[in-house]
Amino acid sequence: MPTTIILTEDALTDADVEHVLSLHAGDAQTETPEYHVLVPQDTDHNVVAAIIDHLWSGELREAGEDLVGREPTPDEAKVTAAERLERSLALLHGAGATARGAVTQEDPIPALATAVADHGGPDDVQDIVVVTYPHVVEDTLRRDWASRAREHLHAPVLHLYAGTSALGD
């Protein structure tokens, strides 16, 4: 069975699921893939990059909260990631898809590479999809997950911005 691997920083939304499932809708020659979702536990939040992202988006209150906020403990980060994973899997299952997933460490690229290898390698995985919010600093400097995954895997990676139909670079 073909596999599409999804790396997401937050729980998938209905719009995200619709976009991912539409990649193969109407393609009678392609077997419906199984979806493998990866959600990292985030304990190392880049405060400066987050503040710039919030200011760029006009989210002044959120920028202030990042400035005075605290990092989650490893246990808190793991619980949050597990909740995001469960919500994502529930939406995929609700849409009729076969899906499973895992919580990864903070840097998800090694786990993504392992998942790709476990499914036969970049040539055998049907799609690799990264779903994130726009991150001005990382996206501009090409240090976002999609760019890093392309470099590491030497494979095409679709970058979707969470909850929208916008594509990342």
What order do the SSEs take from the amino end to the carboxyl end, as H and E?
Answer: EHEHHHEHEHHE
* Fraction in beta strands: 15-25%
How many DSSP H or I helices? 7
Number of strands: 5
- End-to-end C-alpha gap: 29 Å
Structural class: alpha/beta
Say what the CATH topology is. Answer: Rossmann fold
The CATH architecture is 3-Layer(aba) Sandwich
> What is the overall pLDDT average?
82
Describe this entry's structure for a reader.
The protein has 169 residues and is an alpha/beta fold. It has a single domain (3-161), classed as Rossmann fold, CATH 3.40.50.620. Helices cover 44% and strands 17% of the residues. It contains seven helices and five strands; from the N terminus they run E-H-E-H-H-H-E-H-E-H-H-E. The protein has helices at residues 14-22, 47-56, 60-68, 74-94, 109-118, 136-141, 145-153, and strands at residues 3-8, 34-40, 99-104, 127-132, 158-161. The chain has a five-stranded parallel beta sheet with strand order 3-2-1-4-5. Strand 1, helix 1 and strand 2 (34-40) form a beta-alpha-beta unit. Helix 2 runs antiparallel to helix 3 (60-68). The mean pLDDT is 82.
Show the helix and strand layout:
Layout: E1 3-8, H1 14-22, E2 34-40, H2 47-56, H3 60-68, H4 74-94, E3 99-104, H5 109-118, E4 127-132, H6 136-141, H7 145-153, E5 158-161
Parallel strand pairs: 1-2, 1-4, 2-3, 4-5
Helix pairs in contact: 2-3
